[in-house]
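Input record, target 12 of the design panel.
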């Protein structure tokens, strides 16, 4: 493998170990672009790939300087990468600095029971079925927290299943999508507060919300098999009401409305789709600008967050070079651009501000995670030893650039999950976005998996999952030193079995409560779990 050339506007980076190549793959748990949105997807089985070394972007393969043991590990990974074509995308970092592994601190006293407004009793929810007959806390042990409630549903749907990908927690309401319906449940007791049927398939949504608890979804323009994903709706998640409805303009002859992704920040949101992308106001739905430009570099996707917006553009040169553009979210005017080397593209946006990007080369199968400065210059490449899950494919996922992979970003820290070669244990690794170095590592423990839930306020909230019949935990990890504190110990007994069965789950931790939900149902007329809540 040869090191890719530096982009024209970037100085050569300092030497150091780089990043493992990995072929772009479909995002974890979801079908590829244009695939059946109803299908229940099995978890991917990530495989190790070849290890490059070198500065800035991934370099040629080969053992790094500094010791035979580390070189042997890298060569083994390279061999495995050649022999195995996996369905998951992984990369391995190599670095000289071994960050410390902080010891877990003693658990803090249980927080007081979180408050929540009383629910509006509209009946018994959405068909809890057998769940109502089960005492979820029957086997709870001293010191463990409680299963608050469980929602199950019994529905008959098409053979491919029923989508249920949306989950939001807004104030005292947790909202879940189910087919063509959005349902709001009281966080305290799970009673249904409202039920909103939009009548056609929800074909795109975002986990992001405006400050007032509103979000935007896209629905199909009818129920026929050839219906297009061209209708936008504003949804008030607190009240359970629709706002405006707008039809998407066709941005090009290739804009067929097959699928879309949405990204929202402040009062603006972007709708990305094959053949066109456009940016609109959340409050009115009015279109502000599009990515269609007659020449130069044309944005194919926009990513929004923290009041900022980044465009991922393809340039009209012979190499179809890719460019990252910082744009004004209201006018679309570019404030800076960052040109990638020829052959490289953005596979995922881990953060918009600060800009943290997963980039890859489809031809050489190289991959890197880089950060950019506030004015669009190369800041650092992340580097550390381990196998890190990527699960991102730049537009090959129905969830877009911002919603793939087990990672989180807060402030100057990137959190990535590394998994042991046996696939049975994992650890969380915190990277300093400014230097690219690993700051600390936190091991999940024997046969346990650690998954990021949210990062905010200088700490990561993570979920520790053991497996069938063994309850999990919620912990916090401090960004500065990895100091750990147990937030919740989930209950043993019947609740633990149900908890373990949430595989490709949506997870939220808000106001001392932990929510898990499925992203699709079989729709076979049998009782199926939908949403579960835990608390004090």
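The sequence produced for target 12 reads:
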């Amino acid at each position: 493998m040869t090191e890719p050339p530096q982009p024209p506007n970037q100085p050569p980076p300092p030497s150091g170990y780089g990043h493992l190549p990995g072929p772009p793959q479909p995002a974890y748990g979801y079908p590829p672009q244009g695939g059946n949105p109803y299908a229940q997807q099995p978890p991917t089985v990530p495989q190790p790939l070849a290890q490059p070394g070198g500065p800035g972007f991934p370099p040629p393969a080969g053992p790094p300087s500094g010791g035979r043991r580390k070189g042997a590990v890298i060569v083994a990974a390279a061999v495995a990468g050649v022999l195995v074509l996996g369905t998951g995308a992984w990369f391995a970092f190599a670095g000289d600095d071994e960050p410390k592994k902080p010891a877990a601190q003693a658990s803090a006293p249980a927080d007081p029971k979180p408050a929540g407004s009383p629910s509006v009793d509209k009946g018994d929810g959405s068909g809890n079925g057998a769940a109502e007959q089960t005492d979820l806390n029957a086997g709870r042990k001293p010191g463990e927290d409680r299963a608050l409630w469980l929602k199950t549903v019994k529905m008959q749907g098409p053979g491919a299943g029923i989508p249920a990908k949306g989950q939001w927690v807004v104030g005292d309401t947790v909202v879940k999508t189910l087919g063509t319906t959005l349902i709001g449940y009281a966080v305290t007791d799970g009673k249904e507060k409202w039920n909103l049927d939009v009548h056609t398939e929800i074909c795109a949504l975002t986990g992001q919300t405006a400050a007032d608890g509103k979000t935007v979804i896209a629905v199909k323009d009818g129920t026929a098999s050839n219906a297009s994903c061209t209708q936008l709706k504003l949804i008030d998640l607190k009240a359970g009401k629709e706002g405006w409805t707008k039809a998407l303009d066709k941005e090009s002859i290739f804009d067929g409305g097959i699928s879309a992704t949405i990204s929202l920040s402040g009062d603006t949101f972007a709708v990305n789709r094959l053949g066109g992308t456009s940016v609109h106001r959340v409050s009115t739905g009015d279109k502000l600008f599009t990515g269609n430009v007659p020449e130069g570099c044309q944005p194919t996707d926009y990513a929004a967050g923290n009041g900022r917006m980044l465009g991922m553009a393809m340039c009209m040169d012979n190499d179809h070079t890719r460019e990252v553009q910082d744009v004004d979210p209201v006018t679309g005017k570019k404030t800076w651009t960052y040109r990638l080397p020829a052959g490289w593209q953005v596979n995922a946006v881990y953060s918009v501000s600060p800009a943290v990007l997963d980039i890859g080369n489809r031809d050489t199968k190289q991959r890197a995670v880089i950060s950019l400065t506030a004015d669009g210059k190369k800041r650092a490449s992340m580097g550390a030893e381990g196998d890190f899950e990527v699960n991102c494919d730049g537009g090959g996922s129905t969830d877009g650039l911002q919603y793939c992979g087990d990672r989180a970003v807060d402030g100057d820290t990137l959190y990535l999950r590394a998994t042991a070669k046996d696939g049975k244990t994992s650890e969380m690794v915190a990277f300093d976005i400014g230097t690219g170095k690993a700051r600390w590592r936190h091991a999940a423990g024997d046969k346990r998996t650690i998954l990021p839930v949210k990062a905010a306020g200088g700490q990561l909230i993570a979920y520790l999952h053991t497996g069938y019949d063994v309850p999990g935990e919620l912990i916090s990890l401090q960004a500065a030193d990895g100091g750990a504190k147990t937030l919740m110990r989930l209950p043993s007994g019947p609740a633990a079995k149900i908890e373990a069965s949430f595989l490709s789950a949506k997870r939220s931790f808000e106001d001392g409560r932990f929510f898990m939900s499925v992203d699709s149902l079989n729709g076979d007329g049998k009782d199926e779990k939908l949403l579960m809540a835990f608390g004090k």
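The first strand starts at residue 90 and ends at 93.
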